[in-house]
Design goal:
The chain has 137 residues and is an alpha+beta fold. It has a domain of 86 residues. Helices cover 18% and strands 18% of the residues. It is built from 3 helices and 6 strands. Strands 2-3-6-4 form a 4-stranded mixed β-sheet, covered by helices on one side. A two-stranded antiparallel ribbon has the order 1-5. Helix 2 runs parallel beside helix 3. The radius of gyration is 15 Å and the shape is globular. The termini are far apart. The N terminus is likely disordered.
C-alpha cells in the first residue's frame, strides 16, 4: 500500500508568514507562540483581532471568531480552505468575507520541526469578519 500525499505534521506551531502578518500589525493575537498561560478561546477579544489558530481544532476557533464578531470585534482568521466542513458553513460563510490566497502559504516553522521550509500541502484563505462596507485588511 502506498503512502498518502500529505504526511502528518510534527507540530501545530506554524507561524504566520511575514507578508500576511505585516498586514495586521498591531492587531491582537489570541494564539501567540510561545503559548501564554491563558487560552485565547476562553478570554474576551478586543476590537481588532488576527487569528492564525492551531489547525487541530479549527471548529472551536471559527466559532469563537463568529461570536467575537457578533460582539463587535473585527476579526481576520487565517485557515486552511476547508470549505466543505460543517463548521465552515456554520461559522465562517454566514459572517465572513473570504479572501482566497493564490498559491500555497509558506507558514513559519516556530519550533524547528521541519527540515526545510515547505509550502502547506493545502490551500489557505483569510476570513474577514467585518461589516461588508469596510475595506479588507
Amino acid at each position: 500500500m502506498g503512502r498518502g500525499y500529505i504526511s502528518k505534521a510534527k507540530s501545530i506551531n506554524w507561524g504566520t508568514p511575514p507578508e500576511i502578518k505585516d498586514r495586521f500589525e498591531g492587531w491582537f493575537d489570541p494564539c501567540p507562540h510561545p503559548r501564554p498561560e491563558w487560552c485565547g478561546l476562553s478570554i474576551p477579544w478586543p476590537k481588532k483581532v488576527f487569528v492564525n489558530p492551531p489547525f487541530n481544532r479549527l471548529d472551536l476557533w471559527v466559532e469563537k471568531c463568529a461570536v467575537e464578531y457578533m460582539a463587535g470585534s473585527e476579526v481576520t482568521l487565517l485557515m486552511p480552505a476547508r470549505v466543505d466542513t460543517k463548521y465552515f458553513h456554520a461559522w465562517v460563510l454566514p459572517y465572513a468575507q473570504i479572501e482566497f490566497i493564490k498559491g500555497r502559504v509558506r507558514y513559519v516553522d516556530l519550533d524547528g520541526s521541519s527540515e526545510l521550509p515547505q509550502a502547506a500541502p493545502f490551500p489557505s484563505i483569510l476570513c474577514h469578519y467585518k461589516h461588508p462596507t469596510e475595506p479588507m485588511g
